[in-house]
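Long-time lurker. I teach an intro course on protein structure, and each term I like to show students one example going from raw sequence to a predicted 3D structure in token notation. This year I'd like something fresh instead of my usual example. Would anyone be willing to generate the tokens for the chain below so I can use it in lecture? Attribution to the forum is fine with me.
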Amino acid sequence: MSATAASSPPLSFARRPDGYAGAAHPRRADPASLQQMGGRTMGTTWSLRFDNPRMLPHAQVRTAVEEALGRVVAQMSHWEADSDISRFNGAAAGTRHRLGAEFAAVVACALRWAQASGGALDPTVAPLVACWGFGPQAAAAAPDAAALVDAAARVGWQRLRFDPSDASILQPGGMVLDLSGIAKGFAVDHGVAALRALGLRDLLFEIGGELRGVGRRPGGLPWQVGVDSGAHPAPPVALADMAIATSGDRWHVREDADRRWSHSIDPRSAQPVGPALASVTVLHAQCMEADALATVLMVLGPDEGPRFADAHRIAALFGRRDDEGLAWHASAAWRVHT
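-- Reply from a regular --
Happy to contribute to a lecture. Here you go:
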């Protein structure tokens, strides 16, 4: 499933799957009232639609966005050899690293949901992701049992020693951080903060299908996105100062022999998630939270996921596969928001 609008085709990821199944796009708005721009970042694209009553130069707006996204890449991209996260991943055992404010905020959020979900989200899952053929160190074929045992031995969020008082983290030795299930959502929030600092108050900002709406469209209506799974679209969703993120298995898959699997890996079992859930879409005030929670619920699956969503008052829409195709299941909080 993806969150999309009829007016725009879905985006694809150029380099790396991020636990996201599709794309979220604004529904068509009045081009005479809205301005727009876009670019590339994090192996995918970003786009912005905004009301510009003060007539800020587009170069100023673009610079604010690109500088904000650049900070996220410099700190958290495990595709960049000189990023902060890559330096941590290659550091010697027993070394402690002071994190930038953005990096620290994402680690704190990831660890909070790792604990709450019993490890369904694990920021140290990278060795398993690579085993199953995704990420910068992707294996070429499905792993054998020995490779999985070795990778699983290097996974475990409980081994991280993060100290929020000084935003530092200990490298216990051989630990590989992978924040791709949450950092892109944070980048959306960080970009929005930069735009609001310029005085922009009505905007829709998107990175690789994860999207946050601030304020309203001209005329007072909220921003809207469509939630789509190809032949089984769900009703449009209003983003009234809300963000939306999706995790699923529609596009980012691997095949080996007679087996097909998605990039969503369950850190608890060391296996890709099963096919019963096609996707999970989450609404939240912060895109970082929506991004993390979409991953959590996708890993928890079609039974435990909805229970977790209701217990934590998460606005989530589950796309479940059944004998007749795809059926939607909305959490209680989703029904309230939509």
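Some talking points for your students: Helices lie at 58-76, 84-89, 101-116, 126-131, 145-153, 183-197, 287-311, 332-337. Residues 1-32 have pLDDT under 50 and may be disordered.
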